[in-house]
Specification:
seven-stranded mixed beta sheet; binds zinc ion
């Protein structure tokens, strides 16, 4: 981890702390947890753009507790999640940050999945002529939901598509249902980088009672991600302020498998959901972000799965 990434780490920890100060009404419903343990540091900026160490043209834009990746090429920019939910300033800042680096056109905006807290606010990108891309079911959900601040995707991906622009390739892969039924994994083969949002929290317990999730199929999607060729993962939230590794994915898979097995046992003993939510602990993960806050909610999710069948 060299300086740029280290900087991201330091700033991101502050960002998580900043996100903690957001009033409850402004908290997005499906936001991943901000870092509860991070001390507030008033001097930390609300946003930062960092070029990913070791790359020529890959950037992470963080705004408060959210992150988006963008790739700059001579022929244009590939942006990802607009992260403008309830805060148009984030999108304006995102565009300003891109414009500090390049005047090349913004060709694409790729959605990680359909959840509003990540994909809202894309209208200014659309007005600049960007083509919006998402997994097919993301488009279906957004069409059905008719959320006023979400640009409907122009193009869809079923299983796989590779965007090629100005000498850079970005591979978009659907790896099955996990957190949502439409997560796209974005992989830069040359840079061996991934951008994946919400279904691979880094050293963090999953959000609340893991809404919109397929907990068992999720394990398969993590195995598919592990089988891909990559070294570093850009997450959609700062978590502990660093990029992820395959070790992190293995650890998440182990956490989910262990939790699933524990809760299945509790369900078989008739303890779901309230007793299991009090009793089930996985102490070896207690240093993970949001362990104290969300573990019981995670247990509740598996209680429905193993205790009720859904
Ligand atoms: Zn989400």
């Amino acid at each position: 981890m060299r300086i740029a990434v280290l900087t991201l780490l330091l700033l991101a920890c502050g960002a998580a702390a900043l996100a903690q100060t957001t009033p409850p009404a402004a908290q997005p419903p499906t936001a991943q947890p901000a870092a509860p343990a991070a001390p507030a540091t008033p001097a930390q900026p609300a946003f930062v753009t960092i070029k990913v160490d070791g790359t020529d043209n890959v950037y992470v834009f963080r705004y408060q507790g959210y992150q988006s990746m963008f790739v700059v090429t001579p022929e244009g920019v590939i942006a990802t999640d607009p992260i403008g939910y309830l805060r148009p300033q984030a999108v304006k800042t995102y565009l300003d940050e891109i414009r500090k680096i390049t005047s090349a056109p913004i060709k694409y905006v790729v959605y990680s999945h359909h959840h509003f807290d990540h994909i809202s606010g894309g209208r200014p990108f659309k007005d600049l002529g960007a083509t919006f891309i998402a997994q097919r079911r993301a488009k279906e959900h957004l069409e059905a939901l008719q959320y006023s601040d979400a640009v409907i995707p122009d193009e869809v991906v079923d299983e796989k598509r590779t965007l090629a622009l100005g000498g850079t390739e970005l591979e978009l892969s659907y790896v099955g249902r996990n957190h949502s039924d439409n997560s796209l994994v974005m992989r830069l083969p040359k840079e061996k980088l991934l951008f994946a949002v919400d279904f691979i929290p880094i050293e963090a317990v999953n959000f609340r009672n893991v809404p919109d999730s397929w907990p068992i199929e999720w394990e398969d999607s993590l195995k598919k991600v592990l089988a891909m060729d990559w070294d570093r993962l850009i997450p959609g939230h700062p978590y502990k302020g660093r990029l992820g590794t395959k070790e992190d994915v293995k650890n998440l898979l182990a956490f989910m498998q262990e939790l699933s097995a524990e809760v299945k046992q509790a369900a078989d003993q008739g303890k779901c959901a309230d007793t299991a939510m009090k009793e089930v602990k996985l102490e070896k993960y207690q240093t993970w972000l949001s362990y104290g806050q969300y573990l019981a909610g995670n247990v509740e999710r598996y209680c429905y799965w193993w205790g009720r069948g859904y």
